[in-house]
Amino acid sequence: MWNGLYKYVVSYPKLIVTTLLVFTVFCAMQLDKLQWETDARVYLPKGHHAIIYDEIVADTFGVKNSILIAIVNEEKGIYNAETLSRIARITEQVASLPGVSANRVIDVMSIATASAFVGDDETLGSVRIMREVPSTKAGFDQLRSTIQRNADLFVGNIISEDGKVAIIRAKLKEGIANRYSTYWAIKTMLDSERGLDSEWGGEWSESSEWNGGEWDDSKPAVPSTAKESWPNGMEPNNLEKVISADENGDTLYMAGRPVIEVSSGLSALKDIQLMIPLLCIVLCIMLFLFYRTWRGVFIPMLVISCAVIWTMGTMAFLNVPMYTISTMLPVILVAVGIGDSMHVMSRYYDHVLKNPHGQSGEIVSGVMVQLAPPLITTTITTVIGFLALLFSEMPPFKIFGLFTVLGIVYCWLLSVVLVPAILTMMKPKVGDYLKKKRSLRVHDEDSGVARLLTTWGQYSTKNSKMILIVTLLVLIVSAFGASKMYVNSSWMSDFNKESDVSIANDLINERLDGAIFLNVIVEGESKGALKSPELLRKIEGMQQQVEKHLLVGDSISIVDYLKSINKNLHSGDVTYDRLPDTEAEINEFLFLLSMSGRPDELDEVIDYDYRQANISFLIKTDETRYLKEIIAEVNDYVDREMSGFDVKVNLAGSANNSYIWAELLIDSQVMAVLLSKIGILIMAMILFRSVILGLLTVVPVTVTTLVIAGGIGLMGIPLDVSTALAAGVAIGVGVDYAVHYLFKYRLERRNSLKHDDAVVESMRSVGKTVVFNAAVVTAGFMVLLASQFPPHVKLGAFVSSYMVVSCIAALVLLPLLLTLINSKRQRKAI
Fold first, then answer.
1. Considering only CA atoms, which of 492, 86, 81, 498 is closest in space to residue 251?
2. Would you identify the CATH topology of the domain 447-483+690-830?
3. pLDDT tens sequence across 424-451
């Protein structure tokens, strides 16, 4: 079969090259159609209970992802006319944006929209805490006093305890278009407040989808007038001049999960656009240093470039969205895909060195017929490794695995068709021909690397016991380190500490109650279940218990509103800052709330039938190891204190989603690694038609995974997306090295070489290519260490580490194990 294929390739090289390049151009034309999806919830499988309860919380309580705008004035505090006018102005403008869900005043919450319950033992009403922007000291003092009297509702939520930081919380409509357009529109507003000229342009379709995507100064992002439907509108006092934020001492920040998601996606894309060209430059330099010919650089780079374009073009053509994880796809393909073309080029140069005057077609055919079996074997085994990701519960990981597989197949196809076609059209040539010829006459090797490897091959066959002892010691230490691994994922780890997003997030976590929510939904079996004083006291107890955690800022529920009403009905007497004693009193308070003029204040904490309650915990971190502790505290309390009530308790919110995401990540990766190892083992045994060679194929990659896991555990590095993806590279590369080495070894044994000689010859030829491949990709990926996007830095570090360890594992373990096996078989050929 292979003879027929390569006879056709060498006969019609121009037709093949032209056809493949035309397809490349077609795929490149599709790239503009790529769509982005950065919503963290897409990592959860459809129908997952976290998604279901997120939808329940959104529909029942109106709780949605919010963009947070922080206004900081360290010198004057926020109690000054310009800062308060700025808060009112931004609040009004944000509420008018199409992507903002502003059906109720509380949907865009700030000092400008917040209301407090006031009254005495006979009356109760809801009033704006700031009906207009104060202009006198008395007005500022009254506003400050109102906020302090209702500190349990406002301090830490929309204003800091020291009065120097205020927050605007704007709920967003669902959809990536709304996230991106609102992000840029608010960014434009804040730039305008700073006195900068920048406007985000674009248009909204009738279906409220964002059609924009480019900067356009002619299309303002913010309407000039507020939304007419905005209820109880407040006109801030007009100042003769709008003072810029900097002039007044105001500093403006954006935070919140939508901002983190958008910024992460934009940062990943921007960084990869810079890093991939740098990576390619380094690869080109390394390839030239090894091969000393431009074709040795051009051909492998053409293969991986075409493979990446084909893969991303296919994704765009099929309307498959790009997830944040997908930005790593080109990088992974470079690491896994360059190996095939390098093996072809190395074997081609070996043949040319031995027969420099041969015909191009004959040399290429001979090389490809010899390499075809190991190339198809490495492709199949690597594909199996990444296909294991299809068993992941996380849809983006399935997409990533599927298109990585497609990219690997593309790399193989280009390596076995495009590369020989191009080489056929070129005159046989090898870099430093005379130097390598002289080296062959003197040393039997064409380079210092080959001499070093043959020396190692000779040493390994004679000192197998010592190498075995050292290997076992390394494995013991690695196993100990691996036992210390832990999972910890954080969206904030995607950003440098100096980035605007990190600064804003840290500010909110340090000065206010926190930037992310954990929603605990208590659901009774019948209407009015949440009017029970006993059940409400248990909810209060839950809040008090969970708030003891250092990273829980505060919480709010129907309990807080009932306590606030009780206090206000008794003229602010703090001794009445407690729950009513009877269900009758609770009914009375709830009736007063419904008649207070702002019944929507309760919409986020209780449903209309008083059957479901939402307890919202504000949390100061998104690190999943701490979220796990907080969620465990909630679950323990529910099991211990609420088991006697006829209620169901479920979790929702961004904190819960992040925690579940991490749990699914580790479960999916453990399953993927196990399935990939089993699949590779079975396929290797079938392709080699040998149980022993099949087992040897998976040994280097298994040991590599253990060694890296041990290093991760000993250094205290958490398992996250970058470390998980790097493990996929280890599978692909480690199998590649092992398969090529074992094919060469078996070929030499079948050519009647003794075991020791077969090991040395395999080291001389395949071993050299393995080292070259590892060195090229390691050098290329070390470029990512200079990245400004932390996940790419980690990916670069781990891929480089995997490449080095995979190379060492293959070149140390395979000769060792083959020697041990042969010693038991009296050196009989396998």
1. 86
2. Multidrug efflux transporter AcrB transmembrane fold (1.20.1640)
3. 988 877 655 444 444 444 445 556 777 8
